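Much of what follows relies on a compact textual record of a protein's fold. The record below shows the convention in full:
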Amino acid sequence: MTPNDFIKVTRLKKACKMMVEGEYRVTEIGFLVGFSSSSYFAKCFQKQFRMLPTEFLKKIKEAPSSATK
């Protein structure tokens, strides 16, 4: 894993935690964790977790304990 990939994965994991906390909207979270574009954030999130951030949020709402595993 390259240093850039490591940083990106770390940012995406932080974004997941922030989504679970529910204080911010998805676009805000993307910017807060260091992505300059919400579309790039969604693309990277989907590549890493095989679902879009909005799908992740739906999963959290349906079963809060299973989405974080």
